[in-house]
Amino acid sequence: MRRTLLSSALRKRFFSPRSFWSVAPSAFTKPAFRALGVAECFRKRNARSVIAAVSYRRDRVIDGVYLDFVTVGGLDATERIVSLVERTGRKDFNVVMVNGCVISWFNIVDVKAMFDALGVPAICVTYEESAGLREYIERYFPGDSERLKLYEKLGERELVYIRNTRSYVYVRYAGLGRDEVRRVLEATTLSGQVPEPLRVAQAVARAVHELLERDSPDLLRKPLCEARRRSEGDASLSTTS
After folding, report:
1. I need a labelling partner for 95 at 20 to 30 A (CA). Which of 55, 82, 148, 188 fits?
2. Taking a C-beta distance cutoff of 8 angstroms, is the pair 114, 153 a contact?
3. DSSP code of 212?
4. Percent share of the chain, pLDDT over 90
5. β-strand 102-103 against 167-174: which pairing, if any?
6. In the chain, how many H helices and how many E strands?
7. How far is residue 22's CA from residue 175's CA, in Å, rounded to a whole number?
8. At residue 23, does pLDDT exceed 60?
9. Backbone angles phi, psi at 30, to 5 degrees
10. Mean pLDDT value across residues 44-49
């Protein structure tokens, strides 16, 4: 029998009822408003990708950086991100932002499950048009119905305009409304498309990954305890969706 995506204890939390999160408009302008940005860096040849989480305040102060691993080609992204956030021991995050719902070679981030587990609104952000990844999942993970089901559960992305940088991004979100998503993006994006928490988290993840590739490559090649069998597909495909 295949392992399920989440531990039974975590799954119970995912199905507990949560009320819809509402953020007062004034909250987005307060210096203490915090977004936790999560991004990753990986190479297909490795078993682990590096994920970095950066706590970013509305007044442009970074007051926390956290690190973990996710399985390349696995199905543990949601659980690993939830665990990372919980291990910070912090209760002051207003929103969790992830750089994409499909990371680390088709490892699916279930944004709704993440919100249900943490009780904190969650947003996945991507930046390019896409016809979808179903075709590639079926090609590189034939017969993986669980992965395909998780991907289809994500639903369609929504296009949001960031007025202060005159740019568009695609989002999936849970725990807040579309207008609140726009406000979060406008409060955290300083230039271009990429919100600052995600830009910094991506830079940190890349730097740590490069350091490990140079000095501890065996660590990246060692499977995580919950590692899944990975596809042997081509590593050149972008997993932006």
Report:
1. 148
2. no
3. H
4. 80
5. unpaired
6. 8, 9
7. 8
8. no
9. -80, 140
10. 97
Q: Give dist(CA 225, CA 166) in Å, integer.
A: 44
DSSP 175: S
- Report whether 200 contacts 56 (CB < 8 A): yes
- Residue 30, SS3 per DSSP: coil
Q: Please name every residue paired with 158 in a beta bridge, in sequence order, or none if there are none.
A: 171
Structure tokens at 79: 């659980």
φ, ψ for residue 114, nearest 5 deg: -65, -45
pLDDT at 25 (0 to 100): 52
Show the tokens assigned to 225: 């305890």
d(CA 201, CA 97): 10
Task: Identify the pLDDT of residue 30.
Answer: 78
Closest among 26, 18, 32 to 93, alpha carbons compared: 32
One-letter amino acid identity for 18?
Answer: R
In CATH, the number for domain 25-221 is 3.30.2170.10
Which residues on neighbouring strands pair with residue 55, listed in sequence order? 36, 64
Rounded Cα–Cα distance for residues 137 and 104 (Å): 13
> What per-residue confidence (pLDDT) applies to 225?
74
End-to-end Cα spacing for the chain: 29
Helix or strand holding residue 32 (H, E): none
Q: Beta-carbon neighbour count of residue 100 at 10 Å?
A: 22
Classified as helix, coil or strand, 3 is coil
Residue with token string 């981030």: 109
